[in-house]
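chain below, 572 aa
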Amino acid sequence: MRKILALLLIGLILLSAGCVSQTQETTPTSTEESTTPTSQTSTSTTEITTSTTSTPTTTITTMTTTPTKTYAPIDFKKAKRGEIVGNWDELFDTGTIYVSADLVDLAKHYFPNAEIRPSHEFSGGVAILSPGEARALLRGKPMLITINSYFGYIAYKVGYKFIGEDIGMIIAYKEDGNDRLIFTGNGKAGIGAALKYAMDIKEGKKKVNPSFVTKKTDFEGVIVKEIGDNDWDGIPDEDEYWIVKDFAFDEPFIFNWRIVKGENVTVSGGFIRSVNGSTVYIRALSFDVKVNIETPKGETLTYVIENINPKIMELPEGAEAGDTWVKFTTNEEHFEIRAKDLENYTFLVFGDHRPGSGTKQPQVFFKIKDMMNNDEGVFFIDTGDLVFSGKVEEWGELMKIWDFNRPVFIAVGNHEYQGQGKNVYKKLFGPTDYSFALGNYYFIFMNNVERGYSLSSSQWSWLEGELQKANETGKMPIIIMHAPPVDPRPGESHAMKSTDGEKLMELMRKYNAFGFFGHIHMYWYGEKDGVEFVVAGGGGAPIYAKPDEGGFYHYVRVNVTSGIIIEPVKVE
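prediction:
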């Protein structure tokens, strides 16, 4: 019996052991470990596999995050002058750009990877704004956009105004706790210039000149100008050559050279006032305008030569002509537009037609202008003082009625050639020192209203060189400046600095030069110390003398034959 019980117990133990072993073989165990992502930046999955037959594949999902760059509020007060604009790409988030509707192409070109949002959503960050929208946001700021009925949108910078769609601005400031960076300007070309300048900074091609930066408490800005954007679209093209410069107050100018449709165009006898596509606008400063193209590519260009008298010019075949302009199209690499041979001709001289104050031209100037337009004469000379103080508003009022029907050659005056007036003068009328020959006479125009009514050493050298040219070509020199070398009135000294005046008189005697001047608001013609000259300062400004002493409004009719015949024309 005991043997039977023992055998039964052993059997139960063996049976139990077999059942446990079978369960372990047929029931696999598996483990899956996963993490819930805390960022959507990036996810990586790692598979770990063993070769053991009885162990299943185990997958572990992990997370790798790339931190988003944060932009701390800018401390404008601590930043040095130029540091904010100079490091704009590090201080402002360019992931989103707020853009005026008509400037989206600029945003896509200069910020190709940015999200573009409409400008009305802008409260902080980076914006590319039209002058109209920028004007609304920048009111009361040290730099802003204003508007003029003649010139259109105008950039303003602490008392100075800048005309022309080639002017741009980069402005950083804090508003309601938000940091703002605005690219704007007078037009699309200027806005593109501001963006190009900023990208050059970012790429290390330019550094901000602190002396050109306007800085106030929570404000910093730079004004720039482009030369070379011929289609005025704000984006450099392969056949253009851009020059973008920042400046404080005196604008950069290049008068005689441009790249137009890939052609290297140089002009003499005038200056390039503007380029629009393949059309080059040249304001003549002579009756001999020359154009030269270096390494020509054969492009066909159109030229409009302004401030010219087509009636006395030898014009190319097929040229169009108006009272004071000619227009023609050519692919020639060299050409010249020059006057016919003239021996006897008449020209008219006037000057000092600025008002006693304000923006409006004197009423008598309108009468003088109309009389001159109806008089004979192949060209007009203006001895200067065109506006009262050089302000943009004054220039705008003058240009509205500047409708002479003959070319006008100007000797710049002290009233317009000051402050912002210098830039406006150069934009409209070009360089201030120039010369030309017509017939038997050699005309020399010079700026003598700076440095206390004196000439610089380089001007003296240039003047004597021009007098020598006149001598060598057998032509009589005629010098035109605003201030006379001496005041012809007894005991008065409204003239050049005395030492410079004496030096000019000496040169005029040496080269037998005649002179036309203004500055003194009267008419005078005579000889002083062997020098013959005219003062024609009665164009509309307040008169300085009694009527019987030359104190009357006038212009002067000049006939040149074998000599110079002077005839004042009184205007009531």
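Confidence is low (pLDDT under 50) at residues 1-66. Residues 2-26 form the longest helix (25 residues).
thats it, cya
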